[in-house]
């Protein structure tokens, strides 16, 4: 059996096991590419998934935006540690400190403190990012500037506007000119009218998965998560980073030094069990059995994407999916791929502690809140429970049954718990911690949510 056939069979078997309607997989190893797809791109319409299908890569888009930002840093049009107001003087954020001192480095490392899930539909026009940034003053300061890391979609939309300002080119077109065309990408786009020239996957939500009520997020979220692509094109982008900033034809798009800086730790994560242990300039950084990897995930409306790069082995893997237990699929599939092709063991997901954990859980109870999310932590008998309510614009994009979810918090160690969503087998961590100023936070899903009461 060929290697391609083997991974085709494994993808089909594991997607069915995890209730994923459709998926596409790409493996770049030693310069060779394997690509395969299985299932349905749209279950309602009966459209099969193929290797030519475009999927939403979600927040993997952030690394693409960061890469173009670093090109402009290299050209001298931007500086990592200069205040954003030096190139965007009209910027107004919720506090004077944020307005005056937030830098590109803060935005690329998710340490700005801007409440990251401030989603706002500012229309379909080319001025959508300009209008979005005008409204950013309404986004609260989630934490003091640089005090911790909290995943920030809003910050990347702001980066997109900064790129527009210094180049004079609208973000969607800038990405085509600076990345898609130089890399020779043929199946990558952001605007729906461009995506629909191809076979396009629909997101699926719920259990069993059904086609989501909306296909994509608002255009103002573009730099944070609206690129659509195939595993082949995503891995061509990953090869740019593996090759130190060189495109496939030998054209240098970014210096080796600045490419390497993107993979260098900039900030440690409060929760090291969900994505990785540190953040670079755009990339998530992680340790798998003593081997350093970088990567990124993406989640949109019913679509999930996973990219992992192991530079020492020249190995990069991209998985694009559209509903079901996508994280379970990722865990099982990547465990096999990295073990078989590189001899690297993927970390097991966290599990509840086998023995009782000595901890006063009452100190964690209360309400934690940020834009789009309210989390209530309370005791029910001997259990600690987390009730998550999606609020604001995001609530309108998901089924009503998923807008409020209760999950038991099982202890792992003092201050650290694991939890899982209904219908999902894998555990995710939730970390309670305090900042130097004594304020209490819950870090879950990459976000730092302040305690409100």
UniProtKB/TrEMBL annotation:
Transmembrane segments: none
InterPro entries per UniProt: AmpC-like, Beta-lactam-related, Beta-lactam/transpept-like
Domain of life the protein comes from: Bacteria
Coiled-coil positions: none
Pfam family, one: Beta-lactamase
Domain Beta-lactamase-related: 10-326
Name recorded for this polypeptide: Beta-lactamase-related domain-containing protein
Organism this protein belongs to: Actinoallomurus liliacearum
């Amino acid at each position: 059996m060929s290697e391609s056939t083997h991974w085709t069979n494994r993808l089909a078997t594991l997607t069915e096991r995890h209730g994923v309607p459709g998926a596409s997989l790409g493996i770049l190893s030693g310069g060779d590419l394997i690509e395969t797809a299985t299932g349905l791109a749209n279950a309602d319409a009966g459209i099969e998934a193929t290797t030519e299908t475009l999927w939403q890569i979600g927040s993997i888009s952030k690394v693409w935006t960061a890469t173009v930002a670093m090109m402009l840093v290299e050209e001298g049009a931007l500086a990592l540690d200069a205040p954003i107001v030096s190139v965007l003087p009209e910027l107004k954020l919720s506090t004077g400190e944020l307005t005056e001192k937030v830098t590109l480095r803060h935005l690329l490392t998710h340490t700005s403190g801007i409440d990251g899930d401030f989603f706002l539909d500012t229309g379909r026009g080319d001025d959508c990012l300009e209008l979005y940034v005008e409204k950013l003053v309404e986004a609260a300061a989630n934490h003091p500037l640089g005090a911790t890391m909290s995943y920030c979609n809003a910050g990347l939309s702001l980066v997109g506007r900064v790129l527009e300002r210094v180049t004079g080119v609208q973000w969607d077109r800038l990405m085509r000119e600076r990345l898609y065309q130089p890399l020779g990408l043929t199946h990558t786009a952001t605007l729906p009218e461009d995506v629909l020239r191809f076979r396009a996957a629909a997101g699926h939500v719920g259990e069993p998965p059904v086609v989501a009520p909306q296909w994509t997020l608002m255009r103002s979220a573009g730099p944070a998560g609206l690129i659509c692509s195939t595993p082949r094109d995503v891995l061509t982008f990953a090869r740019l980073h593996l090759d130190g900033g060189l495109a496939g034809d030998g054209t240098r798009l970014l210096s080796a030094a600045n490419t390497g800086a993107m993979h260098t730790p900039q900030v440690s994560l409060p929760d090291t069990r969900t994505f990785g242990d540190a953040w670079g300039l755009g990339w998530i950084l992680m340790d798998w059995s003593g081997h350093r990897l970088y990567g990124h995930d993406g989640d949109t409306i019913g679509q999930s994407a996973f990219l992992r790069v192991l530079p020492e082995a020249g190995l990069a893997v991209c998985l694009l999916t559209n509903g079901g237990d996508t994280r379970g699929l990722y865990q099982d599939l990547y465990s096999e791929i990295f073990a078989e092709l590189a001899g690297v063991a993927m970390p097991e997901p966290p599990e509840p502690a086998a023995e009782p954990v000595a901890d006063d859980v009452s100190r964690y109870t209360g309400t934690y809140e940020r834009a789009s999310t309210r989390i209530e932590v309370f005791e029910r008998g001997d259990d600690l429970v987390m009730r998550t309510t999606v609020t604001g614009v995001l609530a309108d994009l998901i089924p009503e049954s998923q807008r409020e979810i209760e999950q038991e918090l099982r202890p792992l160690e003092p201050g650290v718990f694991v939890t899982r969503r209904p219908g999902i087998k894998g555990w995710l961590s939730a970390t309670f911690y305090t900042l130097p100023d004594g304020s209490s936070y819950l870090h879950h899903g990459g976000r730092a949510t302040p305690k409100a009461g």
